[in-house]
Amino acid sequence: MDTTEKELYNSLLIVVGVVGIILLYFIITIIRYQRRSLKLHKEKIQAEIDTLEKERRRIASDLHDELGPLLSAVKLQINSLNTTDPSDEELIGKSSTHLDSIIRKLREISNNLMPNTLVRKGLQKAITEFIENNKHAYGLEIRFICEQDIHLNQHKEINLYRIIQEILHNTVKHAQASLLIIKIVTEGNRLLLMTADNGKGFDYFAKVKDNPGLGLRNLQSRAEVMGGELTCQSESGKGTTFTIEIPL
Amino acid sequence: MIEAFHFILSLSIIFALVIGIVRFKNIDSSYYPLIYNAAFAFTIEILVQIFMAGGHINALEISLNLFSFIDFFLFAWLFHNWGLFSRNRKTFIYLVGGFFVAWLVTIFITGGITSPDYLFRIIYSFALIFFSVSTFNKVVVNDRGSIFKNPKFWICIGIIIFYAFFILVCVARYSLFKYHVSRIFRVRLQEIGTYSNLLVNLLYAVAILWIPRKKNFTTLF
């Protein structure tokens, strides 16, 4: 190379070096901000979910422990009324039946807010009970497959339970499906929750782009706080499949 | 001697290709264009060496010009699979069609398919950098896991670095080669491309390692 070429080459190397340094700085800065924002985002979602669960637990406990006994006492008092008038007897009977339905409904609401089975007996039993309770209510066949014993911390159990609740409600509300399969498996150090329905399906990407809705956002947030990943596959007429993969 | 060394370095794409072939059946199919690209790049590196050794300059330029368009097409397909063009097939087809026309026009302008088409290489490099920056931003904003385990992150960084330097090299060649620069200057200029190519090939290999496994959606029914 002659002197001019050498100078030209050196200038070119300087340009390459400057571009390289700018690129490197740009990438490092972006990574740092992404990690910081990710940490904040996770903390925020965790705080929101914790507050929500705490509030649900409080309402469930208030309904079950305070209103329940009060209504039972009212029922007892009504039944202890002594009357010979047939119209009064009929009225007492009707009121007693209404009180029974109110007490039953109250228990259902309380159980939906925070299932006792989930707290006492764990995720598998809670899901089985939830499915049993909902099997006939919506004319939807639900199959639950879980062949291994699942041991998770309570936070993860509650989140998985809520995810299943949400998916079932979405299926009933939107999918027009006749069958929903829920499967939980553990593979190495990860847990896979897979659900599939044979409903009408939807365009997932269009839905997410337009307005993902509270349900889908909830699923996403709960998967995120567990450090997991949610995948949805759905096409018009081909049903909907959700896969949630979480580290154990 | 130095050219042989550059050739060996350029074959570093084989790492990405081998990992891609081994994992091909198990990975998410949206990443297939990257594996095809690695295969094409490997083939073209060998072809270029053969043509250079045999003195077939025309064949060399034809293959490089064809590879420019294939390279752009495969990366555009990859970005389309990642949802960059709103997952709209028409937009993708129009884009590829537009670049095909641009390829034909630039070939015509630069003196036919047997002349180096630096103009198209610069244009498509800019396009790929823009696609990568958009995808990179999307990944940074939306990805809630470790960004280092995200193959899109590595691929986008690779594209941004490689094509930024590729533009510099192409611009230098385009503007200087009409002045009959010395052979050693050409080789030195080529070195910039070779080292950025080595870096990007290794980044692709890492990216292919991190490509998520295919989700088995059919097991339940």
Protein model, in words:
The complex is a heterodimer of chains A (248) and B (221). Chain A has 248 residues and is an alpha+beta fold. Chain A has two domains: 55-113; 121-247, Heat Shock Protein 90 (2-Layer Sandwich). Helices cover 67% and strands 15% of the residues of chain A. In chain A, strands 1-2-3-5-4 form a five-stranded mixed β-sheet, with helices on one face. In chain A, β4 (229-234) and β5 (240-247) form a beta hairpin. In chain A, α1 (3-79) crosses α7, α4 (123-135) runs parallel beside α5 and α5 (154-175) runs antiparallel to α7. The model of chain A has no long low-confidence stretch (mean pLDDT 84). By secondary structure, chain B is an all-alpha fold. Chain B has one domain: Rhopdopsin 7-helix transmembrane proteins. At the A-B interface, α1, β3 and β4 of A face α7 and α8 of B.
Protein chains sharing the most extensive interface: A-B, 37 and 29 residues
| CATH-defined superfamily of the largest domain in chain A | Histidine kinase-like ATPase, C-terminal domain
User: Which structural class best describes the helix and strand composition of chain B?
Assistant: mainly alpha
Determine the strand fraction of chain A and express it as a percent band: 5-15%
Gist?
The complex is a heterodimer of chains A (248) and B (221). Chain A has 248 residues and is α+β, with helices and mostly antiparallel strands.
How would you describe this structure in keywords?
heterodimer; A: 248 residues; alpha+beta; Heat Shock Protein 90; five-stranded mixed beta sheet; 7 helices; 5 strands; B: 221 residues; mainly alpha; Rhopdopsin 7-helix transmembrane proteins; 8 helices; disordered C terminus
What is the fold's blueprint, element by element?
The complex is a heterodimer of chains A (248) and B (221).
Chain A: H1 3-79, H2 86-113, H3 116-121, H4 123-135, E1 141-145, H5 154-175, E2 179-187, E3 190-197, H6 204-210, H7 213-225, E4 229-234, E5 240-247
Parallel strand pairs in A: 1-2
Antiparallel strand pairs in A: 2-3, 3-5, 4-5
Helix pairs in contact in A: 1-2, 1-7, 4-5, 5-7
Chain B: H1 2-10, H2 13-23, H3 32-54, H4 57-81, H5 89-109, H6 118-142, H7 151-176, H8 183-210
